[in-house]
Amino acid sequence: MTPTLPLTLSLPEAHAGRRNMRLLIQLRWLAVGGQLVTIAVVTGAMGVGLVLMPLFIAIALLITVNLASRVLLRRDRVVTNFELTGALLFDVGALTWQLQYSGGLANPFAMLFLMQVVLGAMLLTPRSAWMIFASTLAALALLTLNPVPLQLPPRYVHDPLSLYLLGSLICFVVIASLLITLVMQISKNLRDRDEALAGERQRASEEDHIVRLGLLASGAAHELGTPLSTLSVLIRDWKDLPIIEGDSELQQDLADMDIAVKRCKTIVSSILMSAGEARGEATQLTTMRAFLAEVVDVSRAGRLTGTLEFDDQFGDDVPIVSDLALRQVIGNVMDNAAEVSPDWIRLTAYREGAIAVIEIADKGPGFSERIMKNFGKPYHSTKGRDGGGLGLFLLVNVLRKLGGEASVSNRPEGGALVRIFLPIKALAQKAQMPSNRGMV
User: Fold this and answer.
1) CA 438 to chain centre
2) 369 burial type by CB count under 10 A (0-12 exposed, 13-18 middle, 19+ buried)
3) Are residues 110 and 32 in the same domain?
4) Last residue of some domain: 220, 240, 274?
5) 367 domain-assigned
6) ∠ Cα 421 302 213 (to 5°)
7) Same domain, 263 and 130
8) Torsion (CA) 332, 335, 341, 345 in degrees, nearest 10
9) 3-state SS, residue 343
10) For position 388, which CATH number holds?
11) What is the DSSP code (8-state) at residue 250?
12) CA 80 to CA 88: how far, in whole Å?
């Protein structure tokens, strides 16, 4: 049993800065490769004399900046407009340095400054883009002062214009190719950013919906507390009545009622703790196996013996924090499975690398195409009830808060299968927090 994990457990980047910095790194690597090829062709095949040491120094600096930028990108941080501006200013300076030692403005590759201006206009804020434009004008002015001229071989001395036109053609092809690639990549980055922002807005809307549900549930829990306490007292009084005390059948019925009432009171207390009340009891250090055993024991209460099968394949146990919301949503999924498959449900726990996987299977009718298409959205009930369908919606959102996710499918042999994916590291790290910090 090795199902394929769903998409990576990370949310898409909403900020395009990191992607744009990666784009600059890629363009810089292309520049390094192109410059090395150009130097080899110009000095070798064409016989043009170049002052090589300054050119190689500039290439070495480009490589160093690229490696340093890749190290920064490995950290989980946003790349700012200031950093992108600095990177482009460095590129303008490096190109100016190379042109200074290869003919100045007489070098047709001086048109590459246009690439820097376009990049600034597309990647930076307006003020920073104009700064890049001003820096290219300053660079062009500096290149008129005292550039190192190209040492042309005899066949080009009498007709330098043909060499310039050939270089201009090559430069045009290079700029056009890079601009096409650049525009396509930046457009993709912007589409990804817009999709990510739309996802963030959707998540914010869903979280607002959950807050409203929590307020409603908290109010209902307060209202239910008093009648449940009254029922509990009445059951104890009935047990002690002489007319009932000797009736074993009635005593068993009252015991079952007492268990059901206590379970209801536990659920009410859990709702209040999830809403932020009685928070001192909400955080409990435990282990993954103990957490799963508790979920199973609670679900087995009140069911026929043998209807819930627990397949523990988790392996080595790990310390975690018993997350009340997670326990509740898993219990909800199991309750829903039991409604459509009262004779058999199975909970399986195992791990896929650093991911804990929990599966809930049943022998019911399975999920419809509509449910699987709208998985994780509210009010798409598997039971056809108006206002239902919140169980899977809450499951998805609770898992998202914990860095996990879920998937639904139908079993080949019939019935539904819900898979829950949780990063073990995230749960284990919470277990190291002080217990008085409350639930996450």
Assistant:
1) 24
2) exposed
3) yes
4) 274
5) yes
6) 55
7) no
8) 80
9) coil
10) 3.30.565.10
11) H
12) 13
Which domain-ending residue is among 251, 274, 297?
Answer: 274
Q: Do 291 and 420 lie in a common domain? A: yes
Residue-level pLDDT at 92: 93
Would you call 437 exposed, middle or buried from its count of C-beta atoms within 10 A (0-12, 13-18, 19+)?
Answer: exposed
Residue 278 CA to residue 276 CA, distance in Å, equals 7
- End-to-end alpha-carbon separation of the chain, Å? 32
Please give the model's pTM, rounded to 2 decimal places. 0.48
**74 and 91, same domain (yes or no):** yes
Alpha-carbon distance of 414 to 399, in angstroms, equals 26
pLDDT tens string 96-148: 999 998 888 888 888 889 888 988 988 889 999 999 999 999 999 999 888 88
User: Using the 8-state DSSP alphabet, how is residue 104 labeled?
Assistant: G
Rounded Cα distance between 235 and 240, Å, is 9
Domain extent for 213: 209-274
CA dihedral 161, 163, 167, 170 (to 10 degrees): 110
DSSP summary character for residue 75: S
Residues 6+ apart with CB under 8 A from 228: 261, 264, 265, 268
286 and 411: one domain? Answer: yes
| Tally of domains within the chain | 3
